[in-house]
Structure formats: C-alpha cells, structure tokens
Design goal:
about 450 residues; alpha+beta; 5-stranded antiparallel beta sheet
Length: about 450
C-alpha cells in the first residue's frame, strides 16, 4: 500500500522479448490516482478546538495540542489512518508538559486482547537494526501499562533466550500510552487492518487504469497516424549498400508523382483513441464511486453548476467525512485525556464529555450560508455569537476577536449613553462625575 501510494506500482504486462521503447512507455503509463483520493478526505479533517457542550471556550488540555504543533502534524495521523487503515499517537510526560508524537503504522503495531477495548494493552515499534560483535540484532520499543522498554532480538531467532531488555523506563501513566486511530471499525473478527484503509480496495482499479493508459500510448505511438501504401512501383536500391531507397517522402511542400499509370497510392485509417479514453474514464468513475470521492474531483469538466447541484454531487464525500470525524474525534479525545493525565490533571483526564471541534470544510456558498444563519438568528432566536463559528472560513481566532470587539463596542455604547444623559437626567452633557469618568474611559 505504501508503494502504491507513492507511485511504485505493478507495471502493465509486456512480453519478455518486447523492445526497449515499450519499456519507456510502461514507465510513462503509471498514473497515480490514489494520493488524490486520500488527500480529498484528509483535507476535510482539521481539528480546531476541544470543548464541552456547556462551555463555549476551549478546555485546558487544548494548550497541549498547540504546544506539540498538532495543528500541522494532525494531517500526518489522518493520512496514515486513511492510507493504511490505522495510525498511532503516543503520549508521555515531558520536561515542559506532555509529549505527543504521531507514529507511523509501518513501524508500529498495537495489540489489544479485546478488540473493543478503549485502550491498547501493548504497542511495539521497530527502531531499526544494530550490530554487536559479529551478531546482528533487531531493535524494538515495547510499550505497556508500566514502562517503555527497548528490546534487542538476535536477527532471525525467535527463541526467548535471544531477546534482551536493554533498558526500561517507567512512564507512570497506568495504561499503555499509545492511542490507535482507525479509519473504520472492523465488522468481522478476521478483517485485516489494511482492508479498512482507502488504498487497498482501489489498487486493482489503479492497475486497470495503468493498463488502459499503456495500451492507449501504444496505439497513439504506432497506429494514431495514417500509414500510407503504394503498389505498382519499382523500388530502387542503393548501389553501395543494396538497401531499398525510399523515393516518396511526405511533407507539406512535396508532391508525389510518377510516370507509371498503374501505380496506386492509398492510406490505412488511423486507430480511434476514443475507446481507450472511455475505458479509462469508466475506471476512474469506478474509483470515485467506491471511494465516495465526487467524480469531478478526479475528472473535472463541471462548468456553471448550481450550488444545489454541487452540494448533491459532494453529499457522499460529506457523509464519509463526518464518519471519519466521529471515529478520529474519539481517538483525539483519548490523546488529550492522556495528556491531561500526564500532568496530573485527573479531572480533565476523566472528562469523557469533552469533544474535539472540527473545522467545517464543506463547499457552500458564503451568501447562502450567511442567509441561513441570519434566519436562525431572526426567526429562531439563536444568539448571533453562537452562529459566528459556522461561517465558512472563520477560525476560532476570528470568533474570539469578534467577541472582544463586540464587548468593547458595548462598553463604549454604555459609556456614551451615560455621558449624554448624566446622573440627574437634566439633559446637560457631562454634568455628573460618573458621566465624566465614563466619558474619559470611552475616549
């Protein structure tokens, strides 16, 4: 899956005795569509807050998110989970706070005796190879509920006597401090993790696209032009080499002429590439249907489409994105609860009602959304401040800035009102000490 995602894919079949020029065409026929499928979903997954239903502001553990640069590194976790079906994040106490680190599923395996358990029992990470004397060793990092241990294993041996715990450091977390991110939950006990990713089900279709593209390149190179023929002519030969000499050469400023009335010229029809293009387009549409990625994301070609039609075309992607947000959101909640536990904040560590807040990345018209939010405010009485964060493109920083400006404006209006009325309501400006003081503060 990693190789296919990076464009290192099975090559279309060619006979072993094929000429070298066919090998060049094989290399040119590999079109990697799989990263686009993964990116389309991953770009809709951006966490931007951690809150409780009864509190509008972010909770204390959210600062551990920003301290560990997870605004940018979260995409690494999402892409790995989408590609391989699983991803992992570790949480350990650090010198200045909890250390949260994404870990590649190509190097880490999580183990849980109960597949429905909230926490893993163990996690094993491959660190590489080392040499001691004349022997080669595999280096592993083993995570459990008590410690993080480095284990060396004699290369090629499965005997317990050939395994050595080089070092072990207690982490004090009380559970395995590795959180597993699933792309989907398995609905059968024998389901392999890679079967739950986005890449594995699409690999056969990717092969089909490559084969069709290769066949089209061959037809384009050898049969897409009109081959000419001639009969009834005598082909001269070079007196020195004895090889046939081509007497008729095609060009814009050349005319073919012969004095023999029995000579006939003609041409073969060119190969129609339309069938190859339709076959390739059908394979891409199959990929779009299976992955729930809108076809126009892969093929383009949508012009002057209405907002309603665009929403309908992207409804499948929206439902898939919401499902991934729900699954990944639970895992990010575990990460932040572990981070709180690492610094001794047991209340936040046991808070199972807090949820991560996802950025709304659905494609909607700003005018359409603003109109809908305005009706919610006017007709249903929803406070405008609650609706600000639902405006497309608005971040939590924008919302906090708007609230600050609104509070400053309200204080200024109150001060201006007191200044005009005064405490004695005589209509004289600035007659009361309170009014004068408020006026100075407003200024």
């Amino acid at each position: 899956m990693d190789q296919y995602n990076r464009g290192i894919q099975d090559r279309p079949y060619i006979p072993k005795r094929a000429e070298a020029e066919f090998g060049v065409m094989v290399s040119k026929s590999l079109e990697n569509w799989l990263p686009l499928v993964v990116s389309t979903v991953a770009q809709n997954l951006m966490v931007e807050g951690y809150r409780r239903p009864d509190e509008p502001g972010d909770l204390d553990p959210w600062r551990y998110w920003t301290d560990n640069l997870l605004d940018s590194r979260q995409a690494q976790v999402h892409r790995a989970a989408l590609t391989f079906g699983k991803a992992y994040v570790s949480v350990l106490p650090g010198d200045t706070g909890p250390a949260i680190r994404p870990m590649s599923p190509l190097a880490v395996t999580g183990v849980a005796e109960d597949s429905d358990a909230e926490w893993l029992d163990h996690a094993v990470k491959f660190l590489g190879r080392a040499k001691r004397g004349d022997d080669d060793y595999d280096r592993w990092e083993v995570w459990d509920a008590e410690a993080v241990s480095e284990v060396w294993a004699l290369d090629g041996s499965e005997e317990p006597t050939d395994w050595e715990v080089v070092k072990s450091e207690p982490h004090g977390m009380g559970r395995c401090p590795v959180v597993q991110f699933r792309n989907r939950w398995a609905d059968a006990p024998n389901t392999m993790p890679h079967e739950l990713g986005e890449v594995a089900p699409l690999m056969p279709i990717q092969d089909r696209i490559n084969c069709t593209t290769f066949d089209m390149l061959i037809a384009q190179s050898f049969s897409a032009f009109r081959q000419r023929w001639a009969t009834g002519i005598e082909i001269p030969r070079d007196p020195k080499t004895g090889r046939p000499v081509e007497t008729f050469q095609a060009a814009v400023d050349r005319v073919w002429a012969t004095g023999n009335k029995d000579v006939r010229f003609g041409q073969f029809d060119q190969t129609d590439l339309g069938g190859y293009l339709k076959s390739r387009e059908a394979a891409v549409k199959s990929m779009a249907a299976i992955s729930q990625v809108p076809p126009h994301f892969l093929l383009g070609g949508m012009v002057n489409i209405s907002a309603d039609a665009l929403t309908a075309a992207e409804s499948g992607l929206a439902r898939k994105t919401h499902e991934r947000q729900t699954i990944f959101g639970e895992s990010w909640g575990q990460v932040l609860r572990l981070a709180a536990y690492a610094v001794g904040d047991k209340d936040a560590a046991e808070d199972t009602e807090a949820r991560v807040i996802w950025h709304d990345a659905e494609a909607r018209s700003l005018a359409q959304t603003t109109d809908a939010l305005g009706k919610l405010h006017q007709i249903l009485g929803v406070p405008a401040e609650v609706l600000w964060e639902r405006v497309p493109g608005v971040t939590t920083f924008d919302v906090e800035r708007w609230k600050t400006v609104r509070a400053e404006q309200t204080a200024y209006d109150i001060a201006a009102g007191e200044l005009l009325l005064g405490d004695d309501h005589s209509g004289r400006v600035g007659t009361s000490p309170a009014g004068s003081e408020l006026a100075r503060e407003a200024a």
